[in-house]
Amino acid sequence: MGSHQKVVIALGGNALQEPGAPATAEAQLEVVKKTAEIITDIKCIFGYELAIVHGNGPQIGRILLASELAAEVTPAMPLNVCTAMSQGYIGYHIQQGLSHALANRNRPLPVVTVITQVVVDPADPAFQNPTKPIGPFYSEEEAGKLAAERGFVLREDAGRGWRRVVPSPLPQRIVEIHSIKELWDSTIVIAAGGGGIPVIEKEDGTLEGVPAVIDKDLAAEKLAEEVGADILMILTEVEQVALNYKKANQQNLSRLTAAECEQYIREGHFAPGSMLPKIQAAQAFARLHPKKKAIITSLAKAVEALNGSAGTVITQQ
Ligand SMILES: Nc1ncnc2c1ncn2[C@@H]1O[C@H](COP(=O)(O)OP(=O)(O)O)[C@@H](O)[C@H]1O
Ligand SMILES: NC(=O)OP(=O)(O)O
């Protein structure tokens, strides 16, 4: 693998979909084209070697919904297959958008999606306690109806409405990591999309998909660890991590140490299923080495954050 600084970029929901806009393939491609311009800025300005991990919460929820509603005419697909489908079509859009943006700036580079499986522990307690929000947002009334009529498990998502939740076990091992490392020098790799397809390892060494959705920020951290990245960059809707988020005394943070992450997690500042896994991923990455840093910021502030003038930077000390 090369000698430039390495960055793993985790793309959140707003890098793929405009909030409130129709969830069509065409609308996603338009948003991805803008995201691709920002990733190209990062490549052209800093020269980093990079890999991309994307979320799939909204997309997998909709694929599952469509599949369940169509069950009368064609068998419904299990959740792990839905993740594979989301990796395929989101990866396709990023490949197209990013290849085009890079070529336009005279930096042509191959961009390839690796359908990625991630091993999880079948005994992970997450299987008994669904926390990962997927699909569209519902009002409290709609959520009550869906729970009663269709047996969905729904929870309130960080003050933004109600969403269906599914188990989200911790990522343990990226199955295709050797291929990702082989591709690294020549190619921008899109990997572990939607956190990776969750699989368990059976006694005979074979893999079997399980019904869950892995958190993409935690999977991105695993990938960043494996490729020896210098920076884990988590791009989301907010420019900075906050204490007392959405309260009158909200305090935005420019810097955080791993120990402060621990303290603020204990104090309950970060919502599970949204900011909490980002902080956990950032903290785990920062702990690896004093020179490594994690950055949490918005897509729009990504370049400024890499220059040190925006976002929240998480380091070991
Ligand atoms: N303490 C916090 N500081 C900042 N944002 C927070 C905090 N707690 C919860 N959030 C919410 O978490 C959201 C990011 O999570 P989410 O939307 O699930 O991520 P993604 O961008 O990966 O799709 C932010 O947009 C914000 O609404
Ligand atoms: N799999 C996953 O974490 O997706 P989101 O980031 O879209 O929630």
Q: Which sequence of strands runs across the widest sheet?
A: 3-9-2-1-12-16-17-15
Mean pLDDT: 95
Oligomer: single chain
User: How would you classify the helix and strand content by structural class?
Assistant: alpha/beta
- Overall spatial form: globular
Give the CATH class: Alpha Beta
Point out poorly predicted stretches. none
- Measured on Cα atoms, how large is the radius of gyration? 19 Å
What series of H and E elements makes up the topology?
EHEHHEEEHEEEHEEEHEEEEHHEHE
State the share of residues found in helices, binned by percent: 25-40%
Q: What is the number of beta strands?
A: 17
CATH topology: Carbamate kinase
Biggest pleated sheet:
8 strands, mixed
Bound molecules: adenosine-5'-diphosphate, phosphoric acid mono(formamide)ester
At CATH's second level, what is the architecture?
Answer: 3-Layer(aba) Sandwich
